[in-house]
Design brief:
This protein has two domains: 156 residues, no CATH class; 79 residues, no CATH class. Helix 5 packs antiparallel against helix 6. It has a two-stranded antiparallel sheet with strand order 1-2. Strand 1 and strand 2 form a beta hairpin. The protein is built from eight helices and two strands, in the order ααββαααααα. The termini are far apart. The chain is mainly alpha-helical and 240 residues long. The longest helix is centred in the C-terminal third of the chain and has 30 residues.
Length: 240
Amino acid sequence: MIQEQQWLLSLGTFLPLAGVLVMLFIPKKNEVLAKEVGIVTAAATLLVGIYTLTQFDYGQAEKLQFFTTNEWIKPINATFTIGLDGISLPLYILSMVITLLVMIYSWDHVPHPGNAKAFFILMLVLQTGMAGTFIAQDLILFFVFFEVVLLPMYFMIGVWGGENRQYASLKFFLYTMFGSALMLVAFIALYITSKSASFSFQDLREAGAGVGKTAANWIFAGMFIGFAVKVPMFPFHTWL
């Protein structure tokens, strides 16, 4: 693990929320300003991502870089542990690129019934959730970021979706809550059965040998079904 420039990933992940705070004070009728703030925030976030690319040590791509770990939820031993390796780096950057492109396209194409301010705010919240899932190195932190992604998606489907958007958003919510429950139970089961010191990936990896085969199979099943519902994978895709 490389613990240099530890602030970089936090900046790239939470910068969109700064834009959200600014946009909350912009009047709804001032759509142009709201769009400008949204796009500038997304562009600034991408610039942080590009700087991250230049600082990444590609000769040690297999190692976690920009690694940071701090106490977070002490009663359950959840930590704020983040880092990037050669696999998660391109996905982290891709989330920033896609967000900026979608916001640029949406300048003149905000779906019915409009309200560009709310739409762009949800896009920035979605960006934070996506980036967070790629840098999280703790199961509870990963779970929180993963669920943050679902919140703006629910509202975007329910408000700007197609003809049956209310039904679609409710179905999306119920299916993903089922998947979330399975994932969370599996995460907690892994933590308990492994007797890990925390929910961090590193601690769980080191303690994983203590998990029995039967327990490991049940934990895998819970995670697999939970992720299959959320991805979604056949035959768990009917909420689409």
